[in-house]
Amino acid sequence: MADVNRGNRPLSPHLSIYRPQLTSITSILTRITGNALLVGALLAVWWFLAAATSPDYFAFVDGVLTSWFGDLVMLLSVWALWYHSLAGLRHLYWDTGRGMDIETAEKLGWGCIGGSVVLTILTVLVV
Predict the structure, then answer these.
(1) Which of 50, 77, 82, 99 could form a cystine bridge with 119, CB 3.0-4.6 A?
(2) Global pTM?
């Protein structure tokens, strides 16, 4: 049947009226943290390669990674590791077919966010 109202409505929601949902934000965060973990791993490899290269180069790289900026990057890498791990566990739970209703999905999303912050703080305090 022909749609007589076709020209009077938008084809998709526009960004100015779309309200991001927690599940979409956590999905985007999972993708971002996955890519950020690659950057953190490359920095660790850089540090190991510098240790194998020369004492002067290692001192330079170690200075970069132990500066305030390096500390911030490493702290965010720890948070990304915890968040990405908890989000992976959430997806494994979803793969069983459970927790797919909106209320449970939002609780799991807040659990990933809150749990990653708490686990990051515990990691920093213990290590």
Answers:
(1) 82
(2) 0.82
> In CATH, which of 3.40.190.10, 1.10.10.10, 1.20.1300.10, 3.20.20.140 is domain 21-126?
1.20.1300.10
Token pair recorded at residue 39: 């950057």
Q: Which of 69, 65, 82 has its CA nearest to residue 121? A: 82
pLDDT digits (tens, 9 = 90+) for 44-89: 999 999 999 999 999 999 999 999 999 999 999 999 999 999 999 9
